[in-house]
Write a structure and sequence with these properties.
single chain, 148 residues, alpha+beta, Aminopeptidase, 32% strand
């Protein structure tokens, strides 16, 4: 498995993973394309035999200099191989190398699989946001702070 910044040729695979993992509300393809063109180093992909099997999307806040994990997704047929951990670790390391002293993300409270990974990597819940995405769309704000 290879983890690296997405190439333009990978974007269709990223969109495919997004649609498979989030069928009820995927990011539109044009949003992923725009993120790639604005910050190509912050869209990482996991590849097996040149097939995109997962991705991690990050951003840097210009207001706070915090890094954000906007999305992390691994194709359901390729889970259990460590792709999510490797993608998230690589994205966090890249954000920290860019000067981000903290990395933030949102997760659904019921997503225990993702929360377990985030906990293992040192993220901690700092806020429960009721109805963040509308009625019933609660989210947890989690933060990883870089040690001095």
């Amino acid at each position: 498995m290879d983890i690296s910044p997405a190439r333009t040729a990978d974007l269709a695979g990223v969109v495919n993973v997004e649609q498979r993992v989030f069928p009820e509300g995927p990011y539109p393809g044009f949003v992923l394309y725009q993120h790639h063109h604005l910050s190509p180093d912050l869209l990482l992909v996991a590849r097996e035999d040149e097939e995109v099997i997962g991705y991690a999307l990050g951003a840097v806040s210009t207001r706070t200099d915090a890094g954000w994990v906007l999305s992390l997704a691994v194709d359901p047929d390729h889970r259990g191989k460590g792709a999510a951990r490797r993608l998230l670790t690589a994205l966090v390391e890249h954000l920290q190398a860019m000067g981000c002293r903290e990395v933030l993300l949102h997760v659904a409270p019921a997503n225990t699989t993702a929360r377990g990974l985030y906990d293992k990597l040192g993220f901690r819940v700092v806020e429960h946001q009721d109805d963040a995405l509308g009625p019933g769309g609660d989210r947890l704000l989690m933060k990883l702070t870089q040690s001095s």
